Amino acid sequence: MDIVFHCPHCNLEIEVDQEAAGQEFDCPTCQKTLTVPEVPEASDAPGASGPASAPPPPTGAVPTPVSAPSPESPSGPASRDEKRMAVPVTSKPVESLIQKPNKSLELAAKESKPGIRVRTIRHSDCKEVGKDKFDEIVSEFLNKIGDQAIVSITPINYSYLDIGTQKLLTDFGVMVIYRG
User: Fold this and answer.
1) pLDDT score at 172
2) Whole-number percent of the chain with pLDDT over 90
3) Is-contact 17 11, C-beta < 8 A?
4) 132 in any annotated domain
5) Residue 10, domain member (yes or no)
6) How much is the mean pLDDT over the chain?
7) What average pLDDT does range 53-63 have in this prediction?
8) Is 49 a residue whose pLDDT tops 50?
9) Which residue has the higher pLDDT, 96 or 159?
10) Residue 168 sits in the same domain as residue 115
11) Smallest Cα–Cα separation from 112: which of 104, 124, 100?
């Protein structure tokens, strides 16, 4: 038998298994500490005789249907592992728990108002199988932004650790500052 009660703070209807009687937990809506009320015994209920029975439903209440145990679960409803949960109902606006990911830097740069931009092109990133495409990639980028947008083109030298050989290598590239 389940115990159905209301949170005294937010009036949320909560349904728990009778084994939880007397235990404390936090309300899923208002996060206040609640104590599950005890189940009324058959001898305590006025006019009750015989084994314990569920209290009569309030006037106009729709009874909850009880389903027979499924053939897949041999233990059926007598299983102690089965826990019933009620979905909380609230009239408050629900906050979104899923955050949108941040935009990529390129997309943010395209959508923002025009300003000064920096693009660094490294020589090691422009190498393909046996072919050096550094000049082609730099020329393609400069043609894409146009001559009027270029503020400066600065050669750069840098060092990096080659993972395959475990050696410190030096390389070069260009830093392009442009309006965009």
Assistant:
1) 94
2) 23
3) no
4) yes
5) yes
6) 77
7) 47
8) no
9) 159
10) yes
11) 104
DSSP 110: H
Residue numbers of the domain that contains 124: 105-179
Residues 6+ apart with CB under 8 A from 174: 120, 121, 138, 153, 154, 155, 156
Through-space distance between the first and last CA atoms of the chain, rounded to whole angstroms: 69
Among 86, 118, 144, the domain boundary falls at: 86
- Confirm if 29 and 90 have CB atoms less than 8 A apart: yes
* One domain, residues 81 and 2: yes
Q: Are residues 11 and 81 in the same domain?
A: yes
Q: State the average pLDDT over residues 134-145.
A: 93
Report DSSP state, residue 124: G
**116 and 68 belong to one structural domain:** no
Average pLDDT score over residue span 153-179 = 92
Check whether 69 has a pLDDT greater than 50.
Answer: no
97 vs 145: CA distance, rounded Å:
40
Whole-angstrom Cα distance, residue 170 to residue 162?
Answer: 10
**Statement to judge: residues 62 and 131 lie in one domain:** no
Three-state DSSP at 167 gives: strand
Residue where a domain stops, chosen among 86, 118, 140: 86
Q: What angle is formed at CA 136 by the lines to CA 131 and CA 140, rounded to 5 degrees?
A: 150
In this prediction, residue 73 carries a pLDDT of 46
The total number of structural domains in the chain stands at 2
Burial (CB count within 10 angstroms: exposed 0-12, middle 13-18, buried 19+), residue 176: buried
